[in-house]
Sequence to fold (143 residues):
Amino acid sequence: MIQLIHLDKPYAYMRHYVGSAPERLKRALAAGLTTSRVARIWTEKGPDFVEQLRRQHGLSFYCPICSGEAAYGRGMWIGRSPTSPGLFRVRASEQAALCLQCPLRDCVGIGSRRCPINIEQRRRWREWAKERHVAARLAALNA
Fold:
């Protein structure tokens, strides 16, 4: 389990950290110089995921406290393809209805981010990711 920690008051250059905290940050938290909150939890991720998070964007990009709900859809596909889970696929009957209601003049194809089918798949995935994150966070708080 990997936690993204949000510092309520920035300490030195840090507003977030992921993985193990530096010793001086631990001392600052113990001294009450800043407070922290668990902003996000990733389960089933390894140490290589921490390095990938640190290399991409900034950690505030993945923090729901800083970035709002949009952050829940970020950071889940690092290291794998977003089309891999079949759980979020739209059934053929739903695809037909979405295609008929499509506001675009010409079909851009399901691979395009503007395709209503693709938009629906991403919406379903975001709902699932948010529910999973909330459940993991509650489990961590109750532990």
Q: What stands out?
A: The two ends are 13 Å apart (CA to CA). Residues 79-85 have pLDDT under 50 and may be disordered.
